Predict the structure of Gfo/Idh/MocA family oxidoreductase.
Amino acid sequence: MKQVVQNYKSGELALLDVPVPGCKPGGVLVRTAYSLISTGTELMKVSEAGMSMVGKARSRPDQVAKVMQSVATNGVPATYRKVMGKLDSYTPLGYSLCGVVEQVGPGIDDVKVGDLVACAGNEHALHAELNWVPKNLYAPVPDGLAPRHAAFGTVGSIAMQGVRRGEPQLGDVALVIGLGLIGQLVVQLLAASGVRVVGADPDPARCELAERLGAVACGDPASAAVEAAAAELTDGHGVDQVYLAAGGGSNQPVELAARLCRDRGRVVDIGKCRLDLPWNAYYEKELDVRFSRSYGPGRYDPSYELEGRDYPIGYVRWTERRNLACFLDLVARGRVDVEPLVSHIADFDDAVDTYRRLKDGELKAVAVLFRYPEEKADAEPPAVAVPAVRRSGGIPVPGGRSKTQVRLGFIGAGNYATSMLLPHLTGRDGVELSTVVTTTALSGVNAQRKFGFAEATTDLDAVLGDASIDAVFVVTRHSSHAELTRRALLAGKAVFVEKPLALTEDELAGVLAAVEESGNDRIQVGFNRRFAPLLSEARKRFGARTGPASLRYLVNAGRLDHGSWYLQQGTEGTRFAGEGGHFIDTASWLLGADPVSVYATATSGGDDLQIVLRYPDGSTATISYVTSGSPGFPKETLDLLADGKVLRLDDFVRASVYGQKRWVSSRLPKARDKGQEAELAAFVRAVRTGGPMPVPLESLAATTASTLAVQAGLAAGAPVTLARAR
């Protein structure tokens, strides 16, 4: 299928061939009929992509701050790879469309194949021929409503949420600043609510259009006409609400809002304009400044948008989906008229040229629609994304043989895979990157373009069912690791799975049962720190020990950004369950054994953990996993003490050993090498030669069981033995 994409680094726009998305549970596969270009939001993104790197940095200071923090934590090379990997990738455009349901996923019963729906979301309602859309991001189109009009649904929901934030009442007077697409819709929604509207925009054509659609008076914000109209309608008291639907770098809109708003009026920011509030003006009138967050309650909440968990109507009357349905109803009943807003309808094949004309100013438009070709009657339906489990049957279990070429398949191609794993595999002798499978078509195409995969697809069977693929990398979200690993083992593949191997004891048992059933124990978990060159050298310098050791591992984990999927504990497990295996594995490797018991305690709220591991010879390891520390302090520091010796590791930058002789690593600044390259080399070598896996399965299972035992220990308030944890 075709999809509109943009490279944020170069600014290139393209109509790209990408795999068809799979129809996952909880959503529907929609064939697009019309999609709407947001001439404000999307053109701003297109313009930013055409800036220099300095210009991009100036436009997104929030992202620059994140980059600097990443440099402090991960070092320059790793941060550079991550940032450039994200910049030099195709990103999607679009978020408002109307189309026909082509497939219905499990758990969906409110629509059927052939139904017309309006869809929302900048990850699910893209300018693409087919989109997978979760339940709460689509709404059925009322009978009689034209598809091109229903394509306005998402943008209409944005305008509607802005109006709701203003809490207008019958008889109010409102000022709408900015009469672009959102502003025109706000004008109509307010007029339909019994509010008298004054509009402000420097474009006379847009002012004339707004007056035709319900505004009492409109004019240039720099002229006296707008102020005079507001004064006449309010007897000089000022408007009840001001809706900022303008963009750009001028501070004029917020200054005009303060001047024309009544005492204790409301100012609602819907667009993205400059907001240097003149303090005196806003203070003296005690103005209530409000922000409108996109389509309504539920936006940016993964449990609502992706998992389909609705908010009870008694507590949240207007959600994203209910706003979408309400706007469609208003258009269907003629209370809102979107036809006058349609400036241009372009064939989807002309998408790139249409964006160019908009960006260059050649095409003046309020709203532009893409019209998609109708599906041919004899076209084959897209393949189902999630196939049934295949038993390995005649596929031999890997190992015990030597190969000259190792063919790899990847399931997942997110930030970690593309910045920390694939760069070390691309171009490696004896390695062939065969197939990459992703849930979103575009991420697979990006990985194929950058790293040279032979094929990109959304069909899992393309990897698990391909007998020529020797090893599978599972680099997906935590909740899917155990099941994908189990299926890959049963398919006869060697498996490299990023931590964690499992989130529950049952998941771990399932993986081990697959090993027993298939006889395939060719598995490696991404515990990379034991492969870090600096730590390996320090361990060698420390030498053998004769007595018990004490190990202290401080992990200054820091706070997560709001919205991080790591915070989705209901589906992805606790943060320590996802990351803690790294530190337990490192401790066990340094101590040369697996833990026999785990004791855990936590601060109030459970954010900071103290974990004590006991080992067979009496050694102990204490792991302090804390989120309340300073981001300027190193992330990982480790001390190992035994037999009159001390090993010290400072965040994989420097290491030292104190004993009869003192050894200190180079004090020249080095990039943090946490062992990914050496770990991958060891895994590929084991697959090629058929030799043992880099880490014994027993150790991987023990580390996973120890990680899971932390939660059990917190609940019990007592030590947990590993036998009981398993």
Q: What stands out?
A: The first helix runs from residue 41 to 49. The domain at 406-525 is CATH 3.40.50.720 (Rossmann fold).
